[in-house]
Structure to design on (441 residues):
């Protein structure tokens, strides 16, 4: 891939503050005059992702690589208000209890300025309450359960956590966008099945997809729902059940090694000759499986996170990001890489915005205030963090297709569907379930 976009051009595109809404224009003389009150010590940033285990390859390592890349680039641009970013990468392995203990140590003993982390929804649900309890700023960068920031009944308190944020949109958008794409391309589908991991992420993903697809296609029949345990290695019985169900579409939110294993075994069993997959976060797997990944499957990108979208001629920041990531790691960035960009850039943008308003280095509370209702530019377009501290983004769904240009299937350029944020994300203060229930058929 030839790309002449250099770091100077990136700085010009992204702006001194990562193009936060108003942040670049607010830097001005006030922030410059306050430099004497800005510490000279580095900014302590803890970046937590799966660096070992089956989720490391397709998720944790691509996310961590993006953190490292952007910390290096931002440091070469002067860091954050002149302070270098001291990024420490940490492993998310060990389960929720381990992550709670680690978060306590990072906030109380290590005195980190911010925690950027978590892929597991279970880990996010366990750790996020510590933000307010311990007074530490937390940015959940990838975990997707919609209940993390939502109340049980609407309207609910926003924000749920004063110092806790999510810098990528939750699973509501993934599964709603999939349902909308299915309605467009297979409006006469009669039978749908689901295979999802048996824990919060899988259960929540299927729940929202089922609500959405039944609202959009009321006559559809759910013929089978399967709940394999996480880290299952043999899906033979599940695949046989799906083949016998008569399903035309099979929804799945499986991720990591589970998704890779299932897809390989399902293809070998001939499942894709009779049904199409609808993968709510399937964007990494064509690269992971290469030419072995089946054509004709519905793939959601967990937002509009895709190395060929937005198109490079229309959105140079994506062109730069893809080229820089490919140069460093010899792979195209996948959606966890884009999510990591959003987290570290949201933090940088919020700090610089807060500093322009208050002078000097802002407190954690001041940074949190600046991060609420924040808009900033990313390689995927604009990301908005709303008053409920949830990010909102457009969402891309495509259909896998093999071409001569890449050694793995890409998303068919003629069947790309980008659903705007307002169409796939519930408004702040209204639960995703109640929002779907209020749709007009």
């Amino acid at each position: 891939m030839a790309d002449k976009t250099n770091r100077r051009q990136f700085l010009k595109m992204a702006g001194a503050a990562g193009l936060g809404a108003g942040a670049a224009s607010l830097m001005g003389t006030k922030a410059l005059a306050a430099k004497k009150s800005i510490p000279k010590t580095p900014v302590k940033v803890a970046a937590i992702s799966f660096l070992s285990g089956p989720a490391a390859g397709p998720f944790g390592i691509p996310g961590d690589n993006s953190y490292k890349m952007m910390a290096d680039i931002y440091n070469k641009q002067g860091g954050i208000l002149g302070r270098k970013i001291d990024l420490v990468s940490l492993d998310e392995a060990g389960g929720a209890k381990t992550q709670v203990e680690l978060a306590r140590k990072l906030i109380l003993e290590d005195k980190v300025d911010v925690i950027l982390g978590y892929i597991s929804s279970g880990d996010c649900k366990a750790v996020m309450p510590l933000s307010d309890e311990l007074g530490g700023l937390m940015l959940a960068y990838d975990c997707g359960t919609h209940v993390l920031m939502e109340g049980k009944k609407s309207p609910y308190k926003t924000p749920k956590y004063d110092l806790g944020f999510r810098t990528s949109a939750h699973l509501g958008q993934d599964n709603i966008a999939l349902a909308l794409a299915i309605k467009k391309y297979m409006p006469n589908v009669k039978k749908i099945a689901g295979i999802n991991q048996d824990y919060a992420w899988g259960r929540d993903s299927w729940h929202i997809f089922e609500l959405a697809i039944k609202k959009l296609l009321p006559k559809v029949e759910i013929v089978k729902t399967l709940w394999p345990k996480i880290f299952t290695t043999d899906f033979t019985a599940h695949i046989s059940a799906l083949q016998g169900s008569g399903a035309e579409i099979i929804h799945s939110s499986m991720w990591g090694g589970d998704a890779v294993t299932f897809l390989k075994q399902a293809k070998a069993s001939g499942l894709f000759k009779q049904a199409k997959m609808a993968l709510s976060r399937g964007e990494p797997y064509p690269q992971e499986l290469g030419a072995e990944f089946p054509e004709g499957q519905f793939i959601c990108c967990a937002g509009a996170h895709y190395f060929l979208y937005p198109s490079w001629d229309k959105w140079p920041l994506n062109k730069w990001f893809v080229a820089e990531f490919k140069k460093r790691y010899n792979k195209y960035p996948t959606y966890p890489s884009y999510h990591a960009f959003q987290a570290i850039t949201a933090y940088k943008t919020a700090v610089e915005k807060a500093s322009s308003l208050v002078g000097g280095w802002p407190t954690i509370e001041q940074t949190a205030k600046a991060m609420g209702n924040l808009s900033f530019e990313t390689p995927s377009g604009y990301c908005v963090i709303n008053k409920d501290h949830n990010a909102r983004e457009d969402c891309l769904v495509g259909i896998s297709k093999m071409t001569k240009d890449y050694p793995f299937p890409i998303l068919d350029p003629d069947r790309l569907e980008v659903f705007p944020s307002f169409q796939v994300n519930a408004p702040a203060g209204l639960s995703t379930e109640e929002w779907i229930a209020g749709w007009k058929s």
